[in-house]
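Input record, target 12 of the design panel.
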């Protein structure tokens, strides 16, 4: 069974993005799609990093733990709000902290906004950043408009049928990418062994 890490990237007071991270944790578990854990950047409370992890002389245990969780995940869901058309500094901080850990990592984007567009503007900015570090952005995305009305604080959707239908399509694509990556890695390993 694959393992998925969900990065809950909002650290603001009264944040709503975490509601959708909780929804996906519950949805993935309830449907037995993967093992899953939330990496809550508010709980990590990282400083602004002065250097990429591989160049840090004495990284903290917390930083090393975060990097290991990303490395060991078969896929990562990034749940992010849209702030003024962009994404929060908290997610940029941890994306830039790592490099090799992101290589060919299937990443699903979940974006939220208080308005009607569901954070669709932030997708382009985040896609470009992830492309530059050679991550594999899953084509299916999960924008959530009016997030404060769509999910409660425990991650329960107000329209369960619509949320589940959308999540099914999103997770189908995510799991397809994870499986495809695993097959490609197995093929590469086999090819190297037979040389």
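The sequence produced for target 12 reads:
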């Amino acid at each position: 069974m694959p393992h998925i890490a969900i990065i809950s990237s909002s650290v603001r007071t009264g944040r709503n993005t975490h509601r959708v991270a909780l929804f996906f944790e519950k949805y993935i578990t309830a449907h037995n799609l993967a093992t899953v854990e939330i990496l809550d950047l508010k709980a990590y409370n990282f400083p602004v990093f002065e250097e990429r992890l591989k160049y840090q002389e004495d990284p903290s245990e917390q930083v090393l733990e975060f990097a290991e969780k990303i490395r060991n995940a078969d896929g990562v869901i990034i749940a992010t709000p849209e702030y003024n058309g962009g994404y929060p500094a908290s997610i940029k901080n941890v994306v830039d902290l790592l490099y090799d850990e992101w290589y060919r990592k299937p990443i699903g984007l979940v974006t939220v906004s208080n308005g009607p567009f569901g954070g669709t503007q932030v997708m382009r900015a985040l896609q470009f950043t992830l492309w530059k570090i050679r991550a594999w952005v899953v084509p299916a995305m999960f924008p959530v408009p009016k997030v404060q009305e769509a999910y409660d604080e425990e991650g329960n959707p107000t329209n369960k049928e619509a949320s589940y239908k959308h999540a099914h399509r999103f997770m189908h694509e995510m799991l397809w990418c994870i499986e495809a990556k695993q097959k490609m890695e197995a093929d590469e390993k086999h090819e190297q062994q037979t040389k």
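The chain has a mean pLDDT of 95.
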